[in-house]
Amino acid sequence: MPLTIWSNASFSEPAMRRLHEGVRGHRLILSAVRNSSVLVESAGDPLLSDADVAFGQPAARDCMLYQRLRWVHLSSAGYARYHTDAFRENFRARGAILTKSSVVFADPVAQHVLAMMLGLARDLPSSYREQLAEKSWQSQEHRARCRLLTGQTVLLLGFGAISRRLVQLLAPFDCKIYALRRKIRSERGVHIIPEEDLTKALAVADHVVNLLPDSESTRNWLNARRLACFKAGSRFYNVGRGSTVDQKALLDGLRAGIPGAAYLDVTEPEPLPPHDPLWTAPNCYITPHSAGGRHDQDEALVDHFLANLAAFEKGAPLIDVVV
Q: Based on the structure, what is the number of domains in the chain?
């Protein structure tokens, strides 16, 4: 039976052609207002009331209001504005489904983290700074600062699709990997820990990777008390959400040398204002929320949706289910 599919996603022309072709046989409604940033909540759209399926970033209140809607597929890995008790109860009560697009971003984010881990271990930022400035040749100094990733300890704050991919990429380095997760169940090659064991894990971790989403319970979760538990010389990486870190406490920690370095792909706010002291903090490296980037992102998002659509039509399990 043909479905009515609504979308407010802002995709490239090739991706839109792929979407139109992929939903042939169904009715596609495109919202007049496209969502250009998944970080900004969309305005409501009455056209959604006619839809069975939504693809993109529909307003959360509309999703709960329009009872015809059976499935919402987000064009993002994050789902903070849908992560409420009211939303979950609404969808579960009527048997609706919410899926996200973590699988599209897992590989690029994991590769981005690995690149920075290796870059810091091999002292690459220092060499690049010298190339841009005095163009000195400090071979022995750089060699002495280089470290091996092999055998080091990694702590993952959160364990989902991105963490799983990062664990796979770290396999050749024989790292000892801990992961903090609410649900304590075994994962191959990973020591899953409860929050009460966090202090002990922070004390031994050479690398702490934050993948926590934004929610009421995670805002400023990484505070001064937890940062003080970091091992001296450890590296911190934030590819979750900027709101999960007390950035003033992080700045104080970097100035005191704990953690020894930080890599931030996400900040609070975004964009990070030019005058923010994190830009010039010691051993702080910032990228502009680009870790999830890939040249074929739009096409990959459409393909993920279409694969889930095929499963939805058959009544088969969907990928990336949230609710």
A: 2
Domain-located, residue 19: yes
Whether residue 146 is found in the same domain as residue 79? no
The sign of the torsion formed by the CA atoms of 212, 217, 221, 226 equals negative
Q: pLDDT above 90 covers what percent of the chain? A: 93
What is the per-residue pLDDT across 245-254, written as a single tens digit (0 to 9) for each?
A: 999 999 999 9
Element (H, E) at 71: strand 71-74
Q: Is position 181 within any domain?
A: yes
Are 172 and 300 within one domain? Answer: no
What tokens does 50 get?
């006619």
What confidence tens digit (pLDDT) does each residue in 124-163 have?
A: 999 999 999 999 999 999 999 999 999 999 999 999 999 9
pTM for the full model? 0.94
Q: Does residue 271 have a cis peptide bond before it, meaning omega lies within 30 degrees of 0?
A: yes
- Considering the domain architecture, whether residues 69 and 217 belong to the same structural domain is answered as no
Question: In this predicted structure, what is the pLDDT of residue 39?
Answer: 79
Q: How, if at all, do strands 153-157 and 97-99 pair?
A: unpaired
| Cis peptide upstream of residue 273 (ω within 30 degrees of 0) | no
Q: What radius of gyration do the chain's Cα atoms show? A: 22
Cα separation values, 112 from 6, 7, 108, 234, 303, Å: 33, 29, 6, 18, 22
Mark whether 94 and 115 lie in a shared domain. Answer: no
Indicate whether 244 and 301 sit together in one domain.
Answer: no
Q: Domain of residue 45: give its range.
A: 4-100+295-314
Q: Does residue 172 share a domain with residue 114? A: yes
